[in-house]
Specification:
single chain; 203 residues; alpha+beta; 3 helices; elongated
């Protein structure tokens, strides 16, 4: 007989049963990201976080199981739909269907994350080369972009006229392969920045 899954307490107990069917080292925990619905986490033997969720309270036996991927993967989370006929049935479906999907997605995620990290290292090297001759320059990371910002207002030298502020803003592309620069102010500062840009090409 299918379990009754209308309260969080019942749902938690059912998740505990599934965890026991999956393996002796599995444990359960609250799914705080899905607190607005019946949901519970199962942490399996290999440390995978499985989110068991009920999306439709009118069909309480229809559940969805998601296998989390590392942060930064930017991939759809592998999932399967299951019927809550028994804890043994869901554990079998997780092992038979979800784990292979998760293993495949995890391999792709690892490659993507390494690519992102390599891109970030390349951007950082260029950014540091650009910022080097600009004391106090600020480096900010954005999505696949790095920005270097610098400004300086020279001390007045006793000569009349408006005070001029030197400014440099450089945006570095995903792998450091291109740089967009806006610069204004003292020629010496701009030349120093351009020299840094030329030196950055070695990265």
């Amino acid at each position: 007989m299918p379990p009754e899954l209308t309260t969080q307490q019942q749902f938690n107990a059912f998740a505990d049963e599934i965890a026991r069917e999956l393996g002796t080292h599995c444990r359960t925990a609250p799914d705080t990201k899905n607190a607005h619905r019946l949901a519970w986490l199962i942490i399996d033997n290999d440390g995978r976080a499985l989110s068991l969720r009920q999306h439709d309270s009118d069909q309480p036996a229809r559940l969805q199981v998601y296998a989390a991927l590392p942060d930064g993967a930017d991939l759809p989370t592998p999932s399967i739909g299951v019927t809550a006929s028994s804890a043994w049935h869901i554990a079998r479906e997780i092992t038979r269907r979800l784990y292979p999907l998760h293993a495949e997605a995890a391999e792709v995620a690892a490659v993507l994350i390494e690519q992102k990290e390599a891109e970030a290292r390349a951007r950082r090297a260029v950014a540091e080369a650009v910022a080097g001759p600009l004391p106090g320059a600020r480096i900010q990371e954005f999505h696949r972009r790095t920005q270097v910002s610098w400004q300086c207002t020279p001390e007045p030298q006793g000569q009349p006229g408006p005070v001029q502020t030197d400014r440099v803003q450089a945006v570095i592309g995903p792998s450091g392969e291109w740089i967009s620069v806006e610069a204004s102010g003292d020629l010496q500062a701009i030349v120093a920045m351009l020299t840094a840009l030329a030196a950055a090409q070695q990265y």
